[in-house]
Amino acid sequence: MSKPNYSGVFHMVEQENMDAYLGALDINFALRKIVCLLKPTKDITHDPATGAMKIRTITTFKNFNMDFTIGQEFTEDLGPVDGRTCQTTVSWDGDNLVCVQRGEKEGRGWTHWLEGDKLHLEMRVQGVVAKQIFKKSD
Questions:
Q1: What residues contact residue 97 under an 8 Å CB cut-off, 6+ apart?
Q2: Buried-most residue among 20, 22, 73, 118 (CB within 10 A)?
Q3: What average pLDDT values come out for the chain (138 residues) when binned by 10 residues?
Q4: Do the strands 109-115 and 74-78 form a parallel or antiparallel pair, or are they unpaired?
Q5: What is the pTM of this model?
Q6: % helix / strand / coil in the chain, to the nearest 5?
Q7: Strand 96-102's sheet: what is its strand order?
Q8: Phi and psi (nearest 5°) for 18?
Q9: What backbone torsions phi and psi does residue 83 show, to the nearest 5 degrees?
Q10: Are strands 41-47 and 52-58 parallel, antiparallel or unpaired?
């Protein structure tokens, strides 16, 4: 059975528990407050045939790029986020993309899934969960 194509441009419409999530990543108070005000856009290019994926998270403050092949571990530079690097693997769990980020923070990772024109993102670290919902551009 084929996997969904995540390609598209998505704009954030909802966010939950981001301050606590950033606190668990040891992000300082001032930066947490700025990040919580941002409305990121995700520009995703996905080739379901090869598993290649590029996720561009674009904000007015900082941008973050993630290029990977689904199922292959890589070293992820999270410098723009929290100054860390980790060993990252993104895999399929049904139609969901599940990311495991192994490094100095336990239980770190995220899950993406699609529901209609909505892209859901659940981020996890040390038992803290934050959620974002993005709506696909027309």
A1: 6, 70, 90, 91, 111, 112, 113
A2: 22
A3: 90 97 93 92 95 94 92 88 87 96 93 97 97 95
A4: unpaired
A5: 0.93
A6: 15, 55, 30
A7: 64-69, 52-58, 41-47, 8-16, 128-136, 118-125, 109-115, 96-102, 84-93, 74-78
A8: -65, -40
A9: 80, 10
A10: antiparallel
